[in-house]
Amino acid sequence: EFFGGIGLALGWYTRVSALALLVFLIPTTLIFHDYWTMEGGAAQTQQVMFLKNLAMFGGILFFMTVGPGAISVDAWAQKRREKQITPPQIRKDESEERRAM
Fold this sequence. Notes:
Radius of gyration: 24 Å
Number of strands: 0
């Protein structure tokens, strides 16, 4: 949960971090916040916690769908990769030969 949250906050492997959080969140919500088996104030408290986790589930699905934003480690790494992969430079004499054809 800790590393998934850090990864999501920094935008580092955003979709993988979101998936890890979902894998953790689903059983945790169903096992620890089973308000339907309780009564009184405990049931109400657990229902609130269950609905909170359900809201987090929706937010995590958003990150899995959209991916990282412009200000993220993933976006920075993508820009860096794009700078490293540049097309080969054409010399002037080659470009002049192409124009003559």
